[in-house]
Amino acid sequence: MASVWEAIDGGEVYIYTAKGLKSSNKIAAFDMDGTLIKTKSGKVHPVDINDWQIAFPQVSKKLTEKLNDGYKIIIFSNQSPIGNGRVKIEDFKKKIEGIVEKLNVPIQVYLATGKGFYRKPATGMWKLLAEKKNDNIPIDIGSSFYCGDAAGRMANWAPGRKKDHSMADILLAENLGITFYTPEQFFLGHSIANVPMNKPEFIPKELKPEPFNEALISTEKELLVLVGFPGSGKSTLVKQIEKKSGNRYVAVCRDVLGTWQKCAAEATKLLKQGKSVIVDSTNPDTESRARWTSLAKDMNVACRCAIMTTSKAHAQHNNKFREIMKINHVPISDIVFHTYKNKFVEPTVREGFKEVIKVKFSPTFDDKEAETVYNMYLLEK
């Protein structure tokens, strides 16, 4: 069979299957940039499609050994420049074909061009391999492995070496439950026993379910001001409060109404109608919260604050989860998270709140697949 290219999900993934490739229950999977190849120019990012060379003299030999041991050789590579148009796919195809030819072993190459489930450390590319691209041969997780340079190593992990750009490779292996090697381990036989490595800030599997705090619902009419990162679970909390209160509580959301002034006008109207109002926005500082304590005072109603204890990393995980699951929301940039963190001042009763309640986010899922994805590492750093 001749070598073949195919596009999956409208080009979210491109797969190159080299001539002579055979499926196997044992997978030897590799990252590409910084693992199998490096730039000729010495720059971090290639200057053009010809700016590459084999990363280590031992690469072809080691791949051939694995092939002879019955392994199927795979490359999983994040290539967002293809997705955002900075690199033309037709040019990149030539680069891949040249690399596979140089390595001189049959390889199947997966290129994730977007930011969804196919992008490492999420397991979408592996899922494609396991379910559709391995001739129905079940993969032996215990015999398979993944090798990549994005391992979270700190600066000077070797003399003069910069820190790794991310943890995407080691976390992909963690998500899959397969053995992980750095390139230096696999190709050069180096130990990583004493290499300083970063760990993820948020570990989704360690999240414990939290029961709903009934104290969030008051018997008296009130203004309940939420505080928390974007993606911290405020909107989920709103739905819970609305449902459990029999819709005595109604939310005003800045994302929907556009400005705090419009939210204040709507809140005033709802309070006059006898409803309790939830203010669903980030409200990181005393200034943004003072608008609401002032309104509550003017309307002669109680004002409480509910702060989501969700960390920045956890909120970013939630944001990534929504992006991967194509839940109807606009992805939030890292700048928005940084801005919130820099502005944040812990709310206290001295601001005019009757009470400040801390709320732990507890996700709920529509199905098992969503829960499985949520419990993976989704962030690259």
From TrEMBL:
Top-level taxon: Eukaryota
GO biological processes: DNA repair
Gene3D superfamilies, A to Z: HAD superfamily/HAD-like (3.40.50.1000), P-loop containing nucleotide triphosphate hydrolases (3.40.50.300)
UniProt KW keywords: Kinase, Transferase
Claim: Manganese is one of the keywords in the record: no
Classification via Pfam families: AAA_33 (PF13671), PNK3P (PF08645)
UniProt GO molecular function: ATP-dependent polydeoxyribonucleotide 5'-hydroxyl-kinase activity; double-stranded DNA binding; polynucleotide 3'-phosphatase activity
Cross-referenced InterPro entries: HAD-like_sf, HAD-SF_hydro_IIIA, HAD_sf, P-loop_NTPase, PNK3P, Polynucleotide_phosphatase
PANTHER family: BIFUNCTIONAL POLYNUCLEOTIDE PHOSPHATASE/KINASE, BIFUNCTIONAL POLYNUCLEOTIDE PHOSPHATASE_KINASE
Protein name: Bifunctional polynucleotide phosphatase/kinase
